[in-house]
Amino acid sequence: MPVKIGNFTLNSRVYVPPMAGVTDLVFRSIVRQIDPGCLMSTEMVSSRALLARPESRIMDLGEAEHPIGIQIFGHEPDVMAHAAQLAEKRGADFVDINMGCPVPKITKGKDGCALMKEPELAEEIIKTVKSAVSIPVTVKFRLGWDDTSRNCVSFGEMAEGAGASMVTVHGRTRQQLYSGKADWSHIALVKKALTIPVFGNGDVFSPEAAMQMLEITNCDGVAVARGSLGNPWLIPSITRYLDEGVLSDAPSTLDRLITAYEHASALVEYKGARVGINESRRHMINYTKGISGAAPFRNRLTQITSKKDAAEILAELAFMSEGSTARENFLLAVEQNDLKYGEHPSEGKHDRKGSIKSPVNVVAVAPVAVP
């Protein structure tokens, strides 16, 4: 069933929410290739930082990646409103407000999940942002700050009343971080209390878990975060299972290794060798999880300094897992990938900018003075 979020209709019940250091343009492009219709959002970005640097590449959006949201965080209503306007000018289909991040460096500044302790301020933020943009405003939050203050239902009602067009609820408190088991029953209470779409989040690591969450919560969709790390195929497999009741075959080891290299290569092209290689290490480690005997190779991947290093290690892993034919096919895929990009002009150097320009013409935005 289509899900209506403000002025646009979503034909998917799967949402890939913001993940810091993960849901950048490169990761989203990989997901879009295999599940074009899912809902996605950028990494979360500080509203105050956006005002200082409105050209931030965190907000780079691809021409074909809609529907797409930009998530902002902060605790100053006017600053948040200005940031939301920048997000709209950059082409976002919706603005998502982070009121659920549990990380101490975020919450100690009254941002993220700390706002669940100040619902009046949270309400002012939502109302101010809503009045500043013409696109839908959505909110992500948790069950509450801790077990003694599970205020997710009243918080959700407040968000809807303040103008939110959708909410995403993670089934843990801030105190839990990501430990223990997500409590889907409280997500169900939020869904029952609201009339706007509700997406459930937490412990969705398989198509069966996604279906079970929808059955328990009656949510409009599922938000799949950590389960997609190193496994973007989980997104289309959930979509297919929810729509058709069919379980998809898992990707082969060779497919996983090829995608791991392509992910690393694209990061180098987009962000430059130094940043791209540094960020690619954790992604390649995630892609190799679950491959029998891969632990020593993961240790080596933490030390790579170039795409060549990555290709050599992954080729050895392909040979160890599936034999010489897999290794040859992997190296052929590497060659084809490198021909697509051409030799990176700064391979192995400590550049910062990368060689790929922003995939779309970024709307010129005049710097905004930070209040």
UniProtKB/TrEMBL annotation:
Active site residues according to the UniProt entry: C101 (proton donor)
Obligatory cofactor(s): FMN
Single GO MF descriptor: tRNA dihydrouridine synthase activity
Organism superkingdom: Bacteria
Catalyzed reactions per annotation: a 5,6-dihydrouridine in tRNA + NADP(+) = a uridine in tRNA + NADPH + H(+); a 5,6-dihydrouridine in tRNA + NAD(+) = a uridine in tRNA + NADH + H(+)
Class of this enzyme: oxidoreductase
Entry keywords, A to Z: Flavoprotein, FMN, NADP, Nucleotide-binding, Oxidoreductase, RNA-binding, tRNA processing, tRNA-binding
Domain (DUS-like FMN-binding): residue spans on this chain: 17-315
Family matches, as CDD domains: DUS_like_FMN
Assigned EC number: 1.3.1.-
Binding site for FMN: P18, M19, A20, Q71, K140, H170, A225, R226
NCBIfam families assigned to the protein according to its UniProt record, in alphabetical order: nifR3_yhdG
Stated family: Belongs to the dus family.
Physiological role: Catalyzes the synthesis of 5,6-dihydrouridine (D), a modified base found in the D-loop of most tRNAs, via the reduction of the C5-C6 double bond in target uridines.
Name listed for the protein in its UniProt record: tRNA-dihydrouridine synthase
